[in-house]
Specification:
511 residues, alpha/beta, FAD/NAD(P)-binding domain, five-stranded parallel beta sheet, 10 helices, globular
Length: 511
């Protein structure tokens, strides 16, 4: 194993959690090394950054070979089946719940819908433990919102496929009865339909949003850079300020070192270019790999390599954020749902017996699918639909005989039966069938290293620090104490900002 040096902090993951936490640490003058198992993506902004080695998003024939990075199932090898280390999507098939996540420099920002919302649960941060409250978190939400320069959707943006456009007074569907505050992370042109290539004050090039771009801006990435992603928004300036970022570098084990060693932790990782095993030494490890991969790393380090200890509540209280994704055979003649934004807004039945609002969007980049023309045209008229809500958050993730096991019983969460009933009713009254899986599939697995008042109830404290391991932090949604019931991205970024600020304050007080 090659020793690659020391840093004040090692951040694992470059998504919303890792990038925002690293930003707070580097702002305070700390040396930070970031490990990201995925590659830089080939986008207009990344090219303008001068990144030489870039991996395209899966398009055309590459949809077959380059979309899936790895698959985990109890019948597959213990570490899962890796199909393409530069692939975009990873799938964990669990018992009762399956989870999907992404792999790229910039993490989930490449596959998110470009939409920010506060938690849909009131007092989300209140009453958990001392030092944490909605009031404490408010400035971090504001900080993130300002950095992303998000905009509020209005009629002037002429966003296609919204409920008010698709459903008339005689239709059984309508727009949502109420819409929570919403912000969009896209670079809009001054005049809709007249998009340009622009360069910002940091020298980053982007193409303004084009609703009809066949490469799209959805969960298969935004090659144009119209969707705001972390690789250029956060990581580009951080690289200039000293961030050391290793892409295609997968963290494998966290080792708590004995007293007297130069650093509290050693992070062992694999360089996927050379296959070489390498190690970093640090007093502070910040985990931001996404909930399932953060938990996987902690469980592996505790239960397999036994280089961490304690954490009796690790892997407990897993939730899927009420996610239930489905295929809607919408098939309205003349409508291409693959255009526009990744998220087409909310809608719901007018029937008061089915009050749950649904969301969804078109299948991204459908024009590039390696299919006959008639099938591509058919997929353009189809949509995905989904709902988010509060589930029981009573699932578990464990390491058994070296194999990751995800267990969740959706029957304990009424939200899933309610959504399925709504799907069935929409199919009946519109004549356009919704096909949904028996068990939920989530892109928002949360919990498992929950914040709470002590180690008997949770894994991390109000600052995100693991109770049993000083200097070890969880910056992503694994630390959530509750299910937010809406898109969690905004809240993950705010939590990471809070965590970074508290770590910096702690270090200053220790001097």
């Amino acid at each position: 194993m090659t020793d690659t040096g020391n840093a004040d902090a090692v951040v694992i993951g470059s998504g919303f959690a890792g990038s925002v936490a690293a930003d707070r640490l580097i702002e305070a003058g700390l040396s930070v090394v970031m490990l990201e198992r995925g590659p830089w993506r080939d986008t207009v902004p990344v090219r303008s950054m001068g990144i030489a080695e870039r991996t395209p998003f899966p398009r055309g024939g590459a949809l077959v070979t380059d979309t899936l990075r790895s698959v985990h199932h109890r019948w597959l090898p213990k570490r899962g089946l890796t199909l393409n280390r530069r692939g975009l999507i990873e799938i964990f098939f669990g018992e009762g719940l399956s989870s999907m996540c992404s792999s790229s420099v910039g993490g989930g920002s490449h596959v998110y819908s470009g939409l920010f919302r506060y938690p849909q649960v009131e007092a989300f941060w209140d009453g958990i433990c001392d030092g944490m409250s909605n009031e404490e978190m408010a400035p971090h939400y504001e900080r993130v919102l300002a950095r992303f320069a998000m905009i509020t959707p209005t009629a002037a943006l002429k966003i296609p496929h919204q409920a008010h456009e698709r459903f008339g007074p005689d239709d059984p569907m309508q727009g949502p009865a109420s819409t929570p505050p919403t912000w969009l992370g896209f670079l809009y042109p001054e005049e809709i339909g007249k998009h340009r290539r622009v360069t910002d004050e940091n020298g980053i090039e982007r193409t303004e949003l084009d609703y009809d771009d066949p490469d799209s801006h959805g969960f298969l990435g935004s090659p144009s850079g119209a969707k705001t992603t972390l690789d250029f928004l956060y990581l580009a300036p951080l690289l200039k300020r000293g961030l050391v970022l290793h892409d295609l570098a997968e963290a494998l084990t966290i080792v708590a070192q004995p007293r007297g060693m130069p650093a509290r932790y050693r992070v062992d990782y694999r360089d996927h270019r050379s296959g070489e095993l390498r190690a970093l030494h640090t007093d502070h490890v910040i985990l931001g790999a996404g909930a399932i991969n953060t938990l996987k790393l902690l469980l592996h380090s505790r239960d397999v390599t036994k280089t961490l200890a304690g954490m009796p509540r690790l892997g407990k209280r897993i939730g899927g954020n009420g996610d239930l994704f489905a295929f809607w055979d919408y098939n309205e003649p003349g409508r291409n749902l693959s255009t526009g934004l990744p998220f087409h807004g909310g809608f719901q039945l007018k029937d008061p017996n089915y009050p749950i609002p649904l969301g969804g969007g078109g299948w991204p980049a459908a024009e590039t699918y390696p299919l006959p023309r008639f099938l591509k045209e058919r997929i353009k008229r189809a949509a995905f639909t989904n709902c988010m809500g509060v589930d029981a958050m009573d699932g578990s993730l464990s390491m058994e005989d070296g194999r990751l096991r995800l267990r969740f019983d959706a029957r304990n969460s009424p939200i899933y039966d309610q959504v399925k009933a709504t799907f069935r009713r929409v199919s009946e009254v519109t004549g356009r069938r919704i096909y949904y899986p028996k068990n939920p599939i989530t892109v928002h697995a949360l919990g498992g290293a929950c914040m709470d008042r002590d180690a008997e109830h949770g894994v991390v404290d109000a600052q995100g620090e693991v109770f049993d391991h000083p200097g070890l932090y969880v910056a992503d949604g694994a630390a959530f104490p509750r299910i937010p019931g809406g898109p969690p991205t905004f809240t993950i970024a705010a939590w990471a900002s809070h965590l970074g600020e508290k770590l910096v304050e702690k270090l200053r007080h220790a001097v």
